[in-house]
């Protein structure tokens, strides 16, 4: 019986990791994408694998969530720390492909991913009600193909109160700041981030 490839992504450089992906059996590719360490070389490695049509929609969503999009969903582009920009650009590309229908639906979304997807969609709905939005807005119609009725329930349900959207809107504040909405929060953070980046540069 064929066993899935197990890989220690802390070892080797980007070329070595990319070779593992390119040589992998089709049956292993989704698992490798989901297991890849975003702290390693996500730009070239996941950039290649997520451009493959053999990746299905549920896998694409799982990889997107593993990239921690909550961290930067409400950051102005100029305020993303330089060391995180390759990962953020990769998240941009994955989101664009999801919304364009590039990834075809296959298996249902993994049970472990459903709560985060539900929270993400609820946050999107709350943003729309306020006339704003984050950097990555997932197409609910496409997501419904792997979430089924659960996606519809999120869409018609009452949006959760702001306190329950903390993972989306105050992730970088530790939940300690209130009032002013996401615009106020990130307006306050932006000068600090620019100063920090300047000190690094």
Task: Itemize the secondary structure elements and their pairings.
Elements: H1 14-23, H2 26-35, H3 42-49, H4 57-66, H5 85-100, H6 114-130, H7 140-147, H8 149-156, H9 166-169, H10 181-200
Helix pairs in contact: 1-3, 2-4, 3-5, 4-5, 6-8, 7-8
Short description:
By secondary structure, this protein is an all-alpha fold.
Salient structural properties:
single chain, 201 residues, mainly alpha, disordered N terminus
What this model shows, in words?
The chain is mainly α and 201 residues long. It is built from 10 helices and no strands.
Distance between the termini: 52 Å
Proportion of helical residues: 55-70%
Mean pLDDT: 78
What structural category characterises the helix and strand content?
Answer: mainly alpha
Poorly predicted regions are: 1-5, 152-168, 170-197
Based on CA atoms alone, the radius of gyration comes out at: 18 Å
Count of distinct strands? 0
Count, helices: 10
* H-E string: HHHHHHHHHH
Structural shape: globular
Please outline the major beta sheet.
Answer: none
Q: Which band does the percent of strand residues land in? A: under 5%
């Amino acid at each position: 019986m064929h066993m899935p490839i197990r890989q220690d992504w802390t070892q080797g450089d980007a070329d070595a990791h990319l070779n593992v992906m390119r040589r992998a059996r089709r049956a292993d590719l989704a698992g490798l994408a989901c297991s890849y360490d975003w702290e390693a070389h996500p730009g070239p490695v996941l950039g290649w694998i997520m451009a493959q049509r053999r990746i299905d929609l549920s896998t694409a969503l799982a990889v997107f969530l593993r990239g921690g999009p909550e961290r930067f969903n409400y950051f102005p582009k100029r305020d993303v720390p330089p060391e995180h920009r390759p990962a953020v650009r990769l998240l941009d590309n994955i989101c664009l492909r999801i919304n364009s229908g590039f990834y075809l639906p296959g298996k249902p979304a993994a049970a472990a991913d459903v709560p985060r997807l539900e929270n993400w969609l609820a946050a999107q709905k709350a943003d729309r009600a306020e006339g704003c939005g984050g950097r990555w807005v997932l197409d609910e119609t496409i997501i419904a193909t792997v979430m089924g009725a659960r996606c519809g329930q999120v869409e018609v349900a009452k949006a959760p109160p702001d306190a329950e959207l903390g993972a989306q809107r105050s992730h970088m504040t530790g939940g300690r700041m209130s009032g002013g909405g996401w615009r106020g929060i990130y307006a306050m953070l932006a000068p600090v981030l620019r100063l920090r980046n300047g000190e690094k540069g």
